[in-house]
Amino acid sequence: MNHNSYGNPSYGLGMSYPGNPLAGSSFPNSMYGQGSPMSQGERNARLSGMRNVADGGLTGAWHSDAVSNLDDNFPPSLLDEFKSNKTKCFELSEISGHVVEFSADQYGSRFIQQKLETASVDEKTMAIEVVHLDQQTKMVTELDGQIMRCVRDQNGNHVIQKCIECVPEGEIRFIVSTFYDQVVTLSTHPYGCRVIQRVLEYCHDPKTQQIMMDEILQCVCMLAQDQYGNYVVQHVLEHGKPEERSAIIKELTGQIVQMSQQKFASNVIEKCLCFGTAAERQAIVNEMIGSTDDNEPLQVCCA
Question: How far apart are CA 225 and CA 176, in angstroms?
Answer without folding.
Answer: 25
